[in-house]
Design a protein that fits this description.
Elements: E1 4-8, E2 13-14, E3 17-18, H1 20-32, E4 37-39, H2 52-66, E5 71-75, H3 81-94, E6 98-102, H4 111-123, E7 129-133, H5 135-138, H6 144-153, E8 157-162, H7 167-176, E9 182-185, H8 191-197, E10 201-204, H9 211-222, H10 226-242, H11 250-258, H12 275-287
Parallel strand pairs: 1-4, 1-10, 4-5, 5-6, 6-7, 7-8, 8-9
Antiparallel strand pairs: 2-3
Helix pairs in contact: 1-2, 2-3, 3-4, 4-6, 6-7, 8-9, 9-10, 11-12
Length: 297
């Protein structure tokens, strides 16, 4: 269902307002370069800083612009179950193909609380749902047994975006979830080993700027051509690494701005990169041929 490369889209701003024209251009760039889908208003899309009206508008515009040429998995997660249900229903009404539900952050529910949270959302929508486990930001993870329970009891929970940094966890999940349940990498640098262990693709930050290259890596790995996939991984690895030298999505939005695709605008509490890290990112982008040697930025 969600095999392949799906881009975790940034949300471009101009003067602190959603830049719709830049967003539409970014989506066209993604589709032209062969991604399987886009993920608007995930955490890469600065979802915590958008109000409900903006959140709904970003998803609505993504669906309208994509025109069924690629899948749209709307970010609708929250640490409030009621809010997550409301956002998910809104995405369903807008015509999204699925919803990505980040693990509730800060309030750190128990595994039973997580199970009930996701089961309540699943019962409130017909959309296919993708769990999103990211312990580095949430302080906990969706346990393997909890994923197993959800996959068994909620037919529309069909996948998990796994961003815990552990290839072993992919193997643990594959042992307990149904064959059709999909595991998706949430880390660009781990996409290749994750696929080797049983994942079906990636929800990618890097594909905001190199969609064709990330899609090619994933296609090679899924087809079993691991020599080609490894070569692509090694070429892209410096970019995968340096897009996270500061808090995501600051480096990737900076890279897009250096390419002239959007303004270098962030919403507080996020802000521009520090000078040393900016120089390092520019050097990597130049080495990868993604900005001209003379770009100052």
């Amino acid at each position: 269902m969600f095999e392949g490369t799906h881009t975790a889209l940034v949300t471009p701003f101009r003067n602190d307002r959603f830049d719709e024209a830049a967003f539409e251009r970014l989506i066209e760039f993604q589709i032209e370069n062969g991604v399987n889908g886009i993920v608007p208003v995930g955490t890469t899309g600065e979802s915590p800083t958008l109000d409900h009206e903006e959140h709904a508008r970003v998803i609505e515009l993504a669906v309208k612009t994509a025109k069924k040429r690629c899948k749209v998995i709307a970010g609708t997660g929250s640490n409030s179950t009621r809010e997550a249900i409301s956002l998910t229903r809104s995405a369903e009404e807008a015509g999204a193909d699925g919803a990505l539900l980040v693990l509730p952050y800060y309030n750190r529910p128990t595994q039973e609380g997580l199970f009930r949270h996701y089961k309540a959302i699943a019962g409130a929508t017909k959309l296919p749902l993708v769990l999103y486990s990211i312990p580095g930001r949430a302080g906990t993870e969706i346990g393997v047994e909890t994923v197993k329970r959800l996959a068994s009891e909620c037919p529309n929970i069909v996948a998990i975006k796994e961003a815990g940094g552990s290839v072993d966890r992919v193997s643990q999940l594959r042992q307990v979830v149904p064959e059709q349940f999909e595991i998706i990498s949430g880390d660009d640098a781990l996409t290749l080993p994750f696929i080797a262990a049983g994942a079906v693709g990636v929800i990618s930050v890097a594909s905001n700027i190199v969609p064709n290259e990330v899609a090619s890596l994933v296609k090679s790995a899924l087809s079993g051509d691991y020599a080609a996939a490894r070569a692509q991984h090694e070429k892209l690895y410096p970019l995968f690494r340096d897009l996270f030298i500061e808090t995501n999505p600051v480096p990737v939005k900076t890279a897009l701005a250096l390419q002239g695709r959007m303004e270098p605008d962030f919403r507080l509490p996020l802000c521009e990169m520090g000078a040393a890290n900016l120089d390092k990112l520019k050097a990597t982008l130049r080495a990868c041929g993604l900005i001209d040697q003379g770009v100052l930025g």
